Amino acid sequence: MGDSSGGCLTAQFAITLRSLGLPMPAGLVLLSPFLDHELKSPSHQTNYDSDFVTFDLVGLRWAMNIYSNGLSTSHPIVTPLNADLAGLPPMLIQAGESETLTEDSIDFHRLSAAAGNKVELQMYADMFHVFQIIPFIPQTADAFDRIGHFVQKVMLGDVSGLSSKAVRITLVDGKCVAERHQ
What is the mean pLDDT of each run of 10 residues along the chain (182 residues)? Predict the structure, then answer.
């Protein structure tokens, strides 16, 4: 489980384990994962003003060049969106619709599902980057309930009911008033 860059490290670790033929974790939980180190996602621009946990693209480009340590930012181990995603364990991805990394989650879900993985994407309406760390908002409680349900299913080996769906979750006054499949 990892959030933001930690979500990327979680994905990179699983990809590396698979590539080396080593045992895999039972499942992955990615919270607002930062998976596009090429910074091509349009949500960096479209959601810049709606995500208060954001960085300017100049600073991000500088950081990604340092992070990639001489590799191209398009290298699959640097940007998991460019990796072979086949054979990864079941995944739960959660993100906010208003964050600058929204497209990272949407694209990773789409590519991972196309690779044959069981992966669920839960997009929270009007939520910002890594909203799950704010303990006093109802979306956090809902998100952790859903994470707990996913982890329980994975740990019990009951992944047959997991599908590669995407859902949009809307909460009003702490209650889920809309959950629709995208």
Answer: 95 96 96 92 77 79 90 94 97 94 94 95 93 94 95 89 78 73 67
Distance between CA atoms of residues 19 and 160, nearest Å: 24
pTM of the model: 0.92
Q: Give the separation between CA 100 and CA 40, rounded to whole angstroms.
A: 11
DSSP sequence for 88-128:
PPPEEEEEETTSTTHHHHHHHHHHHHHTT--EEEEEETT--
Q: Coil, helix or strand for 134?
A: coil
Distance CA 151, CA 41 (A): 29
d(CA 104, CA 119): 14
d(CA 146, CA 126): 18
**Which DSSP category does 24 fall into?**
P
The string over 16-25, giving b where at least 16 C-beta atoms fall within 10 Å of a residue's C-beta and e elsewhere, is eebeeeeeee
**What token pair was written down for 34?**
């930062």
Q: How far apart are CA 12 and CA 129, in angstroms?
A: 20
Which one-letter DSSP state was computed for residue 106? H
Provide the β-strand partners of residue 94.
31, 122
